[in-house]
Amino acid sequence: MTSAAVITFLIDRRVLKAQDVVRHGVALHDQSRDRFLLRTLMVGDRPRMILKQARSQEGLIQLRNELRGLRQIRSTAARSIVPACYLADPARGVLAMEYLGAPQAASLSDESVLELGKVLGHLHQRNPFTKQSRLPNDLPWIISAFENTPAWRPPTFGKALSWLKGDHCVQRGLRRIQAEWQCPCLIHGDLKMEHCLERSGSERSAIVLIDWELAKYGDPAWDVAGVFYQEIVRLWIQSNSTALDSAEQGRRLDLGSLLVLMEIFGSAYVPLTREIGTGTDAFVRRLLLCLGARLMQLCFESIENDNDHAAPPPSLRLAELCFAELPMLARHVRGSWPH
Fold first, then answer.
1. Which among 121, 128, 245, 307 could disulfide-bond with 272, CB atoms 3.0 to 4.6 Å apart, if both were Cys?
2. Would you say 155 and 304 are in contact if contact means Cβ atoms under 8 Å apart?
């Protein structure tokens, strides 16, 4: 829809008042992405809401899935962890949501990690699996990518797939996730720090989770891995390494700060989610397997074209590290989490 059509659409649905348009003026600031038109609605000089509109059939399918996920969450006591929804039109593929005040992605400080433990704890504990839901319960595409070509795949799928098919350590790790995957609750499905926004000046949750296009019923370990996999990459960058040619080099990476953050997270998360088994050795093992899978997925997402990267990016070696060092890492994490 054009800007004028959007404004008319919102007035017709009583989300926007005509007198505000006349008195203060209205503008749309574009922040669009591949599959979605994303615009901030300004009334005068004040932002009022975020408008999200599908721009392809694939985007429409994902936006409708996001709406189902948001409706499910907002029907529970976990509703404060998602933006308020002012308008949802599945037929047109339009969603109008709360403007969160120029939010910044949550950093991995001790305070934000503790809050994320609470947020994910409430999400996973209060949204158990139900056969009546219309949300999917399939595996994330990366877990079976070396065996089955996913319906959706990055443009550079072929290059990264060749690395994956040549890496037996990562393949064994992904097969273990397939065998051990659990489906007890609703998960975000694409959690990363840029989808965790800090909301200030509110009595509601201090962290809000956005972009629920891949919401599904699945393994909560996948969401928890989404909190931490980028921290492993950050630690590698901070180590000033110019290359990471083997998992052996990865073993020399100091993961001490990561393990401390995971301990803080677990102190808030595990007490809220014991009923779905998050305080067990099996859950910690799945979490670390999912960390490796998220790092492997980063290989696919970080290649801009098939001519890039004659050698695999560091995230592949870091994925190997998670799979190869699983017993050692699991002992550290399990030993620090509530029993």
1. 121
2. no
- Using only C-alpha atoms, the chain has a radius of gyration, in whole angstroms, of 21
Q: Which amino acid is at 152?
A: W
Instruction: State pLDDT tens for residues 233-285.
Output: 888 888 765 555 555 555 667 788 899 999 999 999 999 999 999 989 999 99
Return the structure tokens found at 256. Answer: 């001490």
**What's the token pair of residue 126?**
């209060």
Residues in the chain: 339
What pTM value is reported for the model? 0.90
Q: Where in the chain is the domain with CATH 3.30.200.20?
A: 3-98
pLDDT tens string 282-319: 999 999 999 999 999 988 887 755 555 566 778 888 89
Segments of the chain assigned to CATH 3.90.1200: 110-336
Q: How far apart are CA 143 and CA 156, in angstroms?
A: 17
**What one-letter code names the amino acid at 122?**
H
163: confidence class by pLDDT, cuts 50, 70, 90: confident
The CATH number assigned to the domain with range 3-98 reads 3.30.200.20
DSSP code for 78: T
Listed range (42-46, 89-93, 245-249, 266-270) with the worst mean pLDDT: 245-249
What's the CATH number for 110-336? 3.90.1200
- Find the angle CA(66)-CA(283)-CA(109) to the nearest 5 degrees: 70
- Tens digits of per-residue pLDDT, 118-145? 999 999 999 998 878 889 999 999 998 8
Task: In whole angstroms, give the CA distance from residue 142 to residue 294.
Answer: 8
- CA nearest to 277, candidates 163, 175, 184: 184
